[in-house]
Design brief:
This protein has 71 residues and is mostly helical. Helices cover 54% and strands 0% of the residues. 0% of the residues are buried.
């Protein structure tokens, strides 16, 4: 990342939390913290890391990107 006080220090984390806010938190409500924790885990492990298309890998899902480049 950048140096202390650099504008790009937190850009990756801020982008991730912006996406999770928009795609998960703003669209659902949970009865308790256990349900929220399970929803966050499912969103990250089952959707964000496997199926969601990312601009950094030419709008392929990370799984498809890794599969294409492993061959």
């Amino acid at each position: 990342m950048g140096s202390i006080g650099d504008a790009y220090d937190n850009s990756v984390a801020e982008a991730f939390f912006s996406i999770i806010q928009r795609e998960l938190f703003d669209q659902h409500q949970w009865a308790d913290q256990d349900q929220l924790s399970a929803a966050i885990f499912e969103w990250i492990e089952c959707w964000y890391n496997t199926d969601r298309r990312h601009s950094y890998c030419n709008y392929l899902s990370p799984l498809d990107y890794e599969t294409a480049h492993a061959a």
